[in-house]
Amino acid sequence: MFEIIKSGGWMMLPIILCSIASMAITIERFWSLQRKKVLPPDLVPYVWRLYREQKMTATALKQLKSSSPLGCILAAGLINSHHGRKFMKESIEETGRKVIHDLERYLNTLGTIAAVSPLLGLLGTVFGMIDIFASLMAHGSGDPSVLAGGISVALITTAAGLTVAIPSLVFHRHFERLVDEYVIAMEDEALGLIDILHGDREAS
Hints:
By secondary structure, the chain is mainly α. It has helices spanning 2-7, 12-32, 35-38, 43-52, 58-67, 69-79, 85-103, 107-139, 144-154, 156-197. The chain is built from 10 helices and no strands.
């Protein structure tokens, strides 16, 4: 494996760095975007029980805000619930934008790696082909097998770039879809809370 990397030339270095970054982001996002962390299943009934029993103190709101992304959104709505439905909805939407920004953390970087890696590989191949043809101009064609071997070495960077780009693109699309699903679910829960607090819906 080391010989293959070495034969790919210096352009293998940025490709390897992209691979390490992509792997780190993927692991971090899988850990951070667990459904139980973003949308705790029993959070909404718990919040409604505290509110109904008039136990929604400043300390409880602070704990709710830091507990999860959904908790942060619900806390924003509860803090402003006495200002009316419209203001409550606006505060939830504003907090929701910040939460979405946090959920999408590093996804732009992952998408950039997916787009740049094959280009780095292609650039490495172009440099390799330039070296091969420069050598041919200087020393003649000689043995065709040497030319074929040089081309195969030059193509290593393209293969490496695609090896990094393909899984990066797959995980980037997966996480984007996951965040979209979480956003829809949090929006439903937040709107449900607004309806309950303002008497438009009964708590389940």
